[in-house]
Amino acid sequence: MNTNLKISNVTKIYPGCVANDNISLEFNSGKIYALLGENGAGKSTLVKILSGVIIPDEGKIYLNENNLKLNSPLDAKKNDIGMVFQHFNLFETLSVFENLIIDSDEQRESVREKIDAIMKKYNFSIDLDIPVLNLSAGQKQKVEIIRCLIRSPKVLIMDEPTSVLTEQETSELFLSLKKFSEEGILIIYITHKLKEVMQLCDEVAVMRRGKLVSVSEIKNENIESLANKMVGQNLKTIKKKKAKTSSDQLIKITNLNFTSEDPFETNLTDINFSVNRGECLGIAGISGNGQSELFQVLSGEIISEKNSIEFNNNYIGDLSPQERREYLMAFSPEDRLEQAAIPQMKIFENVALNNFKSSNFFNNGLINENKIKEHSKKIISDFNVNTDNIELKSQFLSGGNLQKLIIGRELITSPDLLICFNPTWGLDVGAINYIHETLIKINEQNKSIILISTDTDELLKLSDKISVIHKGKKLSKIMNSEEVTSEKLGILMGGAN
After folding, report:
1. How many whole angstroms from its chain centre is CA 11?
2. Greatest Cα-to-Cα distance within the chain, rounded to the nearest angstrom
């Protein structure tokens, strides 16, 4: 049976913001649809309306001409709409099977039979009896998909599904989605990776500032045209020039180890690498393979042996983050809202966070608020942060603007080294373009970057040299980025040596 999903004149308004402005869209089974838009474009709101998380102020949703009342996620499930979120909703210490039956009212034996049939049909190879924490990111995603398939959905919504997958896992996902589509499941695919849209989807809808601005067939589009529709203007093509080789070593990591008592953290074993001035070293890896721990050790959040980190001819392994900043290091963590900013604080207050020892801002225990505000205005101007209100709480900035503020706060001190972890994670194409351009510029100023990222395209675009971390170990030798393909990097990230 064919499935028809119709969104009719849907509007959702928040104070000071029209998130969805009279949206009308129609989807039919047999096709895979992409939903694109910058952060704040309204696509997340629309998807949450479809999945019952948000109730619209106006408009209706029809499935096969039936007017749906989606007042909760349970209503969406009962109406055969499945959703796989970007962040997995799994209990790590429970087994795969326990996670799959947690919201089922069927007998365990009956559910197990369904799961076995699904896994056999789609060639999913997962041990149902092991804890979820032992699974790879790709396997965890398959568990989420199986949880949806148990209910035989008519509609399957995928939210940024490849953000933590290798190239090989992404290819496997695409094969599965195409098979689901062929069998009559209507697929809606949300992503900011335009290359994936071109590879996978049949039609694409583009949203901008709460409005639907374009619906088209993929065969009539290319990456550049989609990017321009998303931002409403032509984007500059950003390309890094080949770096001038330098023998001036800036940072050297020697036999770096970290052993954690937390079972959810990854131990680091014998990490060794160095970065010269003006270089960008990319460190690739699937999420959860020690990148977070490596960032924390390099930034001083986790203290290591003093001699394990040598920076500018100084041993700094036992120094705090603030002490490392005094040596002209800077840091951009992965989680903007948890690690890099305090959402409830104002913009100018967040700007002062990494300069709380600066005599420019603080003197004899007194805060010089005027100087902090002047400094904040300069960051907003120099780094194209889209606001002129430094009194605004940081939680009201879009992801892209908050990241520009954080990068600007770090770079305005003119550090010799910037260590950044997934700097464009979750950002739209316009913000990504700006961040990439900024990182290339500081490299050209003979500044160095350590770029820890799960995005292979980003690594290949920005890095001069690349290495891979897997299960807390540096798996590969350091390679020139020109010698590496996205496919080869994906294989190495998956654990092949």
Report:
1. 27
2. 74
Count of other CB atoms within 10 angstroms of residue 2: 10
Residue 74: its H or E element: helix 73-78
DSSP letter for each residue of 171-199: HHHHHHHHHHHHTT-EEEEE-S-HHHHHH
Q: What sign results for the dihedral spanned by CA atoms 336, 337, 340, 341?
A: positive
H or E element that contains 486: helix 486-493
Cβ atoms of 279 and 446 closer than 8 Å: no
pLDDT in tens, 297-315: 999 999 999 999 999 999 9
User: For residues 227 and 488, what is the distance between their CA atoms, to the nearest angstrom?
Assistant: 27
Whether the predicted model's global pTM rises above the 0.90 cut:
no
What b-and-e string marks burial along 58-73, b requiring 16 or more CB atoms within 10 Å of the CB?
Answer: ebebebeeeebebeee
User: Is residue 338 very low, low, confident or very high in pLDDT (cuts 50, 70, 90)?
Assistant: confident
b/e map of 354-365 (b: 16 or more CB within 10 Å)? bbeebeebbeee
pLDDT higher than 80, residue 494: no
- Give yes or no for a contact between 25 and 7, defined as CB atoms under 8 angstroms apart: yes
Mean per-residue pLDDT for 133-153? 86
d(CA 17, CA 210): 9
Q: Backbone phi, then psi, for 420, in 5-degree steps? A: -125, 145
- Distance between CA atoms of residues 334 and 456, nearest Å: 16
In one-letter notation, the amino acid at residue 416 is D
Total number of residues shown for the chain: 497
* Continuous H helices in 223-299: 223-231, 291-299
